[in-house]
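Typical record is below.
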Amino acid sequence: MEITENDFIFSDDSNLVDVKAVHNYLSTQSYWAKEIPFELVKRSIENSLCFGIYKDGKQAGFARWVTDKATFAYLCDVYIEEAFRGLGLSKKLMSLMMFHPDLQGLRTYCLATLDAHGLYAQFGFKPVSTPEKLMEIRIQDIYINGKGKM
């Protein structure tokens, strides 16, 4: 799937993803993946349903879904480069992703966010209805200072 709007290209072709640019953003600017090793970003892209936003051949935004394409999908690593924020790109990207054929008819769509609840609520996301059923193992700051060795 590829759509062009206002000189931005939105695509699900993971071959177009600039892995170095995504790694740079995640490892230096995100709050969730500080100092993540390049090889982990590369592997995550290879094993996910990825979406990119491109402007003049450069990565302007990114998101990926970890999914079995049958019952479950987890949205992660969503970002828009600072120079392109405020243009509605995240809403357009969410619209495209939510209608992607590989993400239809799933039982569960989930994500975690610190500050974008309003954006995701527009697409039907709500707080977890039964948080008492969810469990996790969370290793805080795993990539910082080499704690999460490969």
